[in-house]
Design brief:
By secondary structure, the protein is mostly helical. The chain has 2 helices and no strands. Keywords: Membrane, Transmembrane, Transmembrane helix.
Length: 68
């Protein structure tokens, strides 16, 4: 499975979403005005990254179902 470049791309996308999520949650936990602003920014980034990850996963599923 790890020899498939598209699968590796899916794993990287999911790990990127996880990393951004953890940065946002840790920023929420610290408190303060600056951290609240940063945590909202991280959560917006997470939404964008999650959308990209979903598209990559759908492409992966499409190619696996069609045998490509």
């Amino acid at each position: 499975m790890f020899s498939d470049p598209l699968f590796v791309l899916v794993v990287i996308a999911v790990l990127a979403v996880l990393a951004i999520l953890l940065m946002g949650i840790s920023s929420f936990g610290k408190g303060g005005e600056a951290n609240a602003k940063n945590s909202n920014k991280y959560m917006r980034w997470r939404i964008y990254a999650q959308g990209i990850a979903i598209v990559i996963i759908l492409i992966f599923v499409f190619f696996r179902r069609t045998g490509g």
